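Progress note, sequence design subtask.
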């Protein structure tokens, strides 16, 4: 029987990130065929090749585990352990040559999130969080900031384009009350929150493979991440995400976000 220790899961996660990086970096800043998916988001040959490489490792190392992947579907979601994979989060960044794209890996054990990773191949930064084990960047411990007031918070989201009209109005209200707001960065904003240089991330229209890897990292770094109703994130969340450095900031930001 395969080991289910935190060390074993981390070893496999490292292999997955290494394989995805090796595949995706072969394609970065090269001419690419870009395909439009049903949800109108772009996918490239690099996305698909990187996820295949990750699935091959899981097939060899953890054949009984489930997989929730962006590019190649779902397998064994009733398994005790389910890996949630996004080979290239920030495909538009990848396509346009920006370094702010990453590989996201989350692990659910019995439905509970126990590991989250954001790997940034171009930046050579690997951010890892494990439940009960803290969060690290390239092996050094990191922690979310102690900012507790919206007026002192630095907030980031990927783009105004991810919001519908009502959600944009809510984000705009919250973000204008913050000390600073920034756009861009895709998954890197969540890493910045775990590292203490960003205090709030608010987004909409996400899928489980977009938010579960970051959620595992942020929770391990001492932050709070939920949906816009304050509910813990899972495979069936509605895709609206708020991450905050502290519980106090999270409560205050949620109140502004949901203000009628």
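Output:
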């Amino acid at each position: 029987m395969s080991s289910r220790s935190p060390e074993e899961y981390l070893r496999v996660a490292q292999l997955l990130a290494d394989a995805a990086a090796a595949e995706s970096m072969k394609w970065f800043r090269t001419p690419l065929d870009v395909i439009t998916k049903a949800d109108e988001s772009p996918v490239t040959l690099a996305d698909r090749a990187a996820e295949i490489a990750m699935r091959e490792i899981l097939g060899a190392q953890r054949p009984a585990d489930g997989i929730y992947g962006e590019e190649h579907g779902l397998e064994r979601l009733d398994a005790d352990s389910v890996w949630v994979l996004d080979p290239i989060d920030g495909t538009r960044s990848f396509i346009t040559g920006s370094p702010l794209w990453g590989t996201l890996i989350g692990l659910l054990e019995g439905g509970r999130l126990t590991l989250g990773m954001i790997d940034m191949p171009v930046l050579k930064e690997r951010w890892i969080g494990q439940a009960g084990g803290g969060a690290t960047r390239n092996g050094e411990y990191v922690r979310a900031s102690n900012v507790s007031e919206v007026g002192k918070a630095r907030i980031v989201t990927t783009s105004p384009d991810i919001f519908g009209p009502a959600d944009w109005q809510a984000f705009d209200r919250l973000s204008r009350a913050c000390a600073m707001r920034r756009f861009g960065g895709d998954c890197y904003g969540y890493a910045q929150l775990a590292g203490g240089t960003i205090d709030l991330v608010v987004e909409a229209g996400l899928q489980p493979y977009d938010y579960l890897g970051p959620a595992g990292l942020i929770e391990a770094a001492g932050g709070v991440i939920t949906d816009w109703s304050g509910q813990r994130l899972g495979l069936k969340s509605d895709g609206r995400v708020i991450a905050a450095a502290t519980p106090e900031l999270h409560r205050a930001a949620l109140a502004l976000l949901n203000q009628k």
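The helical segments are 6-27, 45-61, 91-95, 165-176, 188-195, 208-220, 247-257. Work on this subtask will continue into the next period as scheduled.
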